[in-house]
Design brief:
- The chain is mostly beta strands.
- It has one domain.
- The chain is built from no helices and eight strands.
- The strands form two sheets. Strands 1, 3, 4, 6, 7 and 8 form a six-stranded antiparallel sheet that branches. Strands 2-5 form a two-stranded antiparallel ribbon.
- Strand 3 (33-38) and strand 4 (43-51) form a beta hairpin.
- It is elongated and about 70 Å long.
- 4% of the residues are buried.
- This is Coatomer subunit delta.
Length: 118
């Protein structure tokens, strides 16, 4: 299983102008979980700092005033991982004009630019 770091889910919470006063209930390994509510933009952000074999699942529940469930979608998801699905690696660099291969290093990072759950 891949190891994901800093998985963030963003829920748009439209309340028709009603204030939202709640404290989300979160289950799972709470050591790695944080959340915040941005009242200015009506967004609930749930962050899971680490997902790996020891921390594979969790859930969050929150209460809002009665509303149409479609206002929660799309859910924006952002995450990073220290490896890719293909495990592709650069093994050598060949100079265009010949000569010895230069020294190089590499760092692998998988991140999302735009991932939404509709």
């Amino acid at each position: 299983m891949a190891c994901y770091n800093i998985v963030r889910l963003y829920f748009q919470i439209e309340t028709g102008g009603n204030p939202v006063n709640y404290w989300p209930s979160i289950s799972g390994n709470e050591t790695y979980v944080t959340f915040r509510y941005d009242s200015k933009n009506s967004i609930l952000a749930w962050s899971v700092l680490l997902i790996d074999n020891s921390n594979r699942s969790g859930s969050m529940e929150f209460i809002v005033p009665p509303t149409d469930s479609s206002v929660f979608f799309p859910i924006s998801v952002r995450f990073t991982a220290a490896n890719t699905f293909s495990d592709l690696k650069v093994t050598n660099i060949l100079p265009l004009r010949g000569g010895p291969s230069p020294k190089f290093s590499q760092r692998t990072l998988l991140s999302t630019e735009n991932y939404e759950v509709a």
